[in-house]
Amino acid sequence: MFVFGNFLNAFAQILSMVLTLYMWLIIIRALLSWVNPDPYNPIVRFLYQATEPVLFRARKILPALGGMDVSPIAVIFLIYFLKFFVVTTLLQVAAKLTVGGGV
Q1: Is pTM, for the whole model, over 0.85?
Q2: Residue 34 and residue 29: Cα distance in Å, rounded?
Q3: Are 93 and 8 in contact (CB under 8 A)?
Q4: How buried is 46 (Cβ within 10 angstroms: 0-12 exposed, 13-18 middle, 19+ buried)?
Q5: Which of 5, 27, 46, 78: disulfide with 98, CB 3.0–4.6 Å?
Q6: From the first residue on, what is the mean pLDDT of each consecutive set of 10 residues in the chain (103 residues)?
């Protein structure tokens, strides 16, 4: 069982890193929206392509408040929820399996 526990631990750590990276992409995209970047810049295009699918779905659910797009804030809250709930749960299950306590 310790092998599965180690696998879960590794998966949880990688998931945490991916969620953190995606959160920073969302933050950078939100900051770029304040300065009107060059839409043909490859970095700007990558940021928009990587974040738009998630932000688009959030915009469909959440209305704009006073003309301000709150979808990045909602997505960041969702990422934090996933990190605190899912990743922490996976790490706790992995710790129990690694020690040999079972689930």
Answers
A1: yes
A2: 9
A3: yes
A4: exposed
A5: 5
A6: 91 97 96 90 95 94 83 96 96 89 57
